[in-house]
Amino acid sequence: MLIKRISPSDCKESDVTDERIYLGRREIIKAMGFFGAGSLLASSAASAGILDIFGEQPQSNLFQQSALDYSPAGASAEELTPEAKITGHNNFYEFGVEKHQPAELAQSFKVNPWQLKISGEVENPYTLDYDDLHTTFSLEERIYRLRCVEAWSMVVPWIGFSLAELVKKAKPTSRAKYLAFETLYDPDQMPGQKSRRLGGGIDYPYIEGLRIDEAMNPLALMSVGLYGKTLPPQNGAPVRLVVPWKYGFKSIKSIVGIKFVERRPPTTWNILAPNEYGFYANVNPAVDHPRWSQASERRITSGGLFAQNRIPTLPFNGYGEQVAEMYRGMNLRKYY
Ligand SMILES: Nc1nc2c(c(=O)[nH]1)N[C@H]1C(S)=C(S)[C@@H](COP(=O)(O)O)O[C@H]1N2
Ligand SMILES: [Mo]
User: Fold this and answer.
1) Does the beta carbon of 323 sit less than 6 angstroms from any atom of ligand 1?
2) Relative to the CA of 206, which ligand 1 atom is closest?
3) The domain containing residue 184 runs over which residues?
4) pTM score, two decimals?
5) Which of 11, 66, 79, 254 is the most exposed place for a label (fewest CB within 10 A)?
6) 8 A C-beta contact, residue 117 and residue 132
7) Counted domains in the chain
């Protein structure tokens, strides 16, 4: 199976690394080809064994390692956020509300076997198991900005497949207007689902939703990896949504169900605080959170704690060209 490496957004690879290196890397990828799904599975078994010795979570390579170069790009405006920060600073309340907790408390989270069930208003309901997640659709690398509603952001090299492909395979009926997503509910594995204090008072399972045209937008990604490897559990293994033009809470993790529905589905943060978190949650510097400004954000980079990384927030997180049309005529203050 072919793994494409593209960034269809305006967050181009040429922004995150030197143009010459970028062009050179593309050539290398073409020349060497990629590991197919078969070798992914073979290598995951092997690397799982090796990693177990070190007591680390068993991540496997999704790309042939030599074909990828994540060497630091330097201080460019859209430098990739270092892997250690993407995997060490998380929001995943099922594993605690503190940023450092998911990396600690999700280490033994079981992601294989897994089942993602596609159901509802579709002609072709189906289920994807762990292996299917990596073999059914073509995988691509997408470098996207991730903007949390808390006003910090990262630049993440995700690996995944187009949500549109998953939708097409399901053959939605004419009644399918929205997609309702659901995270695993397993309090024995997710301590935040057992304790209201640890889990931030959320009624689990975590649920999210998209309008069907949003789900079909080419930018909407189902991610199974980052930095060339399978997702670590704290980032939403084995499969999570990435909607780069919306606040991070829309990008639901560790998904077990996607149901096609006729009416707008309830969503976790909107239930918790409806005046603070809307259904749409498009990144919008002109509409402040009731308790803080959304005009700027702290970009998490390789810089230290006191690095000057405050940058202006862009409408639709900088993806307006690809997504603004979907909201034409809508009052984005009302539909925040
Ligand atoms: N199931 C679930 N999904 C979730 C969350 C969560 O608490 N539970 N947090 C969301 C929020 S607020 C953000 S900013 C992103 C963070 O993704 P990351 O940890 O990979 O950076 O995940 C989102 N998806
Ligand atoms: Mo967030």
Assistant:
1) no
2) 1
3) 80-327
4) 0.86
5) 66
6) no
7) 1
